[in-house]
Design brief:
With 324 residues, this protein is of the alpha+beta class. The chain has helices at residues 39-60, 72-109, 115-118, 130-157, 163-175, 177-193, 265-270, and strands at 2-3, 25-26, 125-128, 196-200, 205-206, 210-216, 224-241, 248-264, 275-281, 297-307, 312-318, 320-321. Helix 4 runs antiparallel to helix 6 (177-193).
Amino acid sequence: MTTTFTQTPSLLEPRLGGGPGMPPVLLNHPTQSGAPIDGWKSVLFGLPFLLAGVAIDCAALNLLPGRKNAPDWLIGLVGAFFFLGGAFLIVHGLRGAARKAECERESSARPSEPWLSDHHWHREGVGFSAFNAMLQRLVAALAWNAFLIPFFWVGLNERGVARVFLVFASLFALLGLAFWARWIQMLADLVRYGNSFLDYDEFPYFLGQTLRVRLRAPRHVASIDELALTLRCVQEKYVTTGSGNNRSTQVVCYELYKDATTFSSTQLAARAGGDIPVEFHLPTDQRATALAETPPTYWEVEARGKAHGANYEAFFLVPVYKRG
C-alpha cells in the first residue's frame, strides 16, 4: 500500500486553481455539489430564468402578442431550456436551505456528534448506483444535443453570416460525442457489474485510526485484471474563470489526500462471491468530513477495475470525522 501526495500535471489545472504547491485537481470527478451556487442565492438566481421560460412558452402557445421569427416548436424548446434551468436552481436552492436549517438544529442538539447532523449516513455501509450514474450521463448527453438544436435551425434556415451558427453547432456536436462515448462505457459497466455496496466495519471513522471497509465483490469480478481501491479526501470549491461577459463558475474537486492499494486478478478470483476487505490508515492532520458545508469536504473510496471490455468504476462516501 502506498501513499501519494504528488499531483499529475494537467494543462487545465492552472486555469482551475491548481498547479505547483496546490492540491491536485480531479478532472471529470463526480461532485456532491449540484451547482456552483446554493441556498437562497440559487433561488434568486434561478427565478428570472424560470419566469423567462414561462413568458417564452406563452409566446409559443400564442398567449402573448407579438411577431414570431421562428416556428412554435423551436420557441417552446428555448422556453423549456430557461424554465427547466430556473426550476433546477430554485429546487436546488430550497433543498439546500432546508438541509442547512436541519443540520443547524441537529448540530445544536448533539454538538459532540457531528456525523449525526452532517449527512444521512447508513451505519451498515453505502451503495453506489451504477444505474443512476448511467442515467445522469444519458440526460447530460441528451441535454447537450437538445441545446444545439436552435443553433442548427438558425444555421440551416438563415443565410449569410448566420451560417456560422451551423459551423459552431457542428463542432460542438462533435465534442458532444464524448458524452455519448462515456455513456456507453457506463452502460457497459452497469450491464456487466451491476450496482455496488461498501460495508463499514465501524461507524463513524476518526482521523488517526485505521479505516476498515469491505467491498462486496461485483458480478464478474473474476474477469477484472486489476482492481485499485483509493481512499481520498476531496475538497470542492466554486472556481470562477474568465472575465467580463466570459466569466463562468464551476465546481472543482481538489484532492487533499490519497492512499491506494491494488488487487491482482488472482486475488480477485479468490474473492468472487464474497467480500474484498481493505484497510487504510487515516492521518491526523487532514480535514474531517463536512458534507453539510457549501461547498463540501468529504472522504471517499474509489473502486476502479481494469478489464477486457467494460471497466469497473464506483465511488463510496465514508464517514471520517475528528474525535470530539
